[in-house]
Write a structure and sequence with these properties.
two-stranded antiparallel sheet, 2 domains, single chain, binds guanosine-5'-diphosphate, Rossmann fold, GTP-bd_ribosome_bgen, cytoplasm, alpha/beta, binds magnesium ion, Conserved Hypothetical Protein Ylqf, Chain: A, domain 2
């Protein structure tokens, strides 16, 4: 697992250089983001990094996110001048749309150049957004590894898709924006920060606070609550009581309740939830 990479300035510099070196060789950058947190799952300096290179934003994990927000965010990113493809890497929904977009782009570019040239792409994104899943989806079964391109970036492998397009085999792992505590929370809610490094009861309490404000019906429905607490802590205790997560002396088992709420949120069982709203963009 690479989601617990510690980003320090030296590391960021190396990543930036790696991406910029690879950028020269590609026609398109595919930026993968998490549809539940379309702002928090983006790299803070992505625009500076990528510059004017045409970008395809993959709004991934749409199966876990609010479908109205998926539409809203698609519109927002299109207005920013990017291609946008809503994606579900678990079942491949979105892959045909992506491939057809890429073919059209290649065709238009070939016409512009008056010759045929293979389309080359690289995938970038912060940890856990689904970069590897997307690469595997794009490769399918028919694709094969092609050789090194010595002198370009040492050791870099190009993968050839069944349609002949080429993809850099290693995704560019970007760093998320850690300075903003809300961004950190969103990433943690969605499983992008290792749980071992956090106090899960506090994290779940924060999540319950967000959900009871933004998705009260889903929360009540999932945990069979007739009402929500005035404070998130009351709600958490009510959830524990419903589930029987009670320790000796009638004490609430916060740890176990936290685990359940976080797991169920991440698996989309509480509902299809988007934590950042497109109308605020
Ligand atoms: N529900 C859902 N889960 C996904 C989707 N894409 C990836 N995942 C899951 O998200 C986690 C991280 O995916 P991975 O491809 O390793 O992300 P990477 O760190 O960006 O390479 C894995 O558990 C995947 O199974 C998706 O579209 N929907
Ligand atoms: Mg990966």
């Amino acid at each position: 697992m690479i989601e617990h990479i510690n980003w320090y300035p030296g590391h960021m510099k190396k990543t930036r250089e790696m991406i910029q070196a690879n950028l020269k060789m590609v026609d398109l950058v595919i930026e993968v983001i998490d549809a539940r947190i379309p702002i928090s799952s983006r790299n803070p300096i992505i625009n500076d990094l990528i510059g004017g290179k045409q970008r395809v934003i993959i709004l991934n994990k749409v199966d876990l996110a609010d479908s109205r927000e998926n539409e809203g965010w698609t519109k927002v990113f299109k207005e920013e001048g990017h291609f946008v493809v809503p994606m579900n890497c678990m079942n491949g929904a979105g892959v045909p749309a992506l491939l057809s977009l890429l073919s059209k782009y290649q065709e238009a570019r070939n016409q512009e150049l008056s010759r045929k040239r293979t389309l080359r792409m690289m995938i970038v994104g912060v940890p856990n957004v689904g970069k590897s899943s997307l690469i595997n989806r794009l490769l399918g079964k028919k694709s094969a590894k092609t050789g090194d391109r010595p002198g370009v970036t040492r050791g870099k492998q190009w993968l050839t898709l069944s349609n002949g397009m080429q993809l850099l085999d290693t995704p560019g792992i970007l760093w998320p924006k850690f300075e903003d505590p809300l961004v950190g929370l969103n990433l943690a809610f969605c499983g992008s920060i290792r749980d071992e490094t956090m106090d899960l009861a506090s994290l779940a309490l924060e999540l319950i606070g967000v959900l009871q404000k933004e998705y009260p019906e889903e929360l009540m429905e999932r945990y069979k609550l007739v009402e929500l607490g005035e404070e998130p802590l009351e709600t958490m205790e009510a959830i524990a009581a419903k589930r029987g997560f009670i320790l000796s002396g009638k004490r609430t088992d916060y740890e176990r309740t936290a685990r359940a709420v976080l797991d169920e949120f991440r698996a989309g069982i509480i509902g299809r939830i988007t934590l950042e709203h497109s109308e605020d963009a």
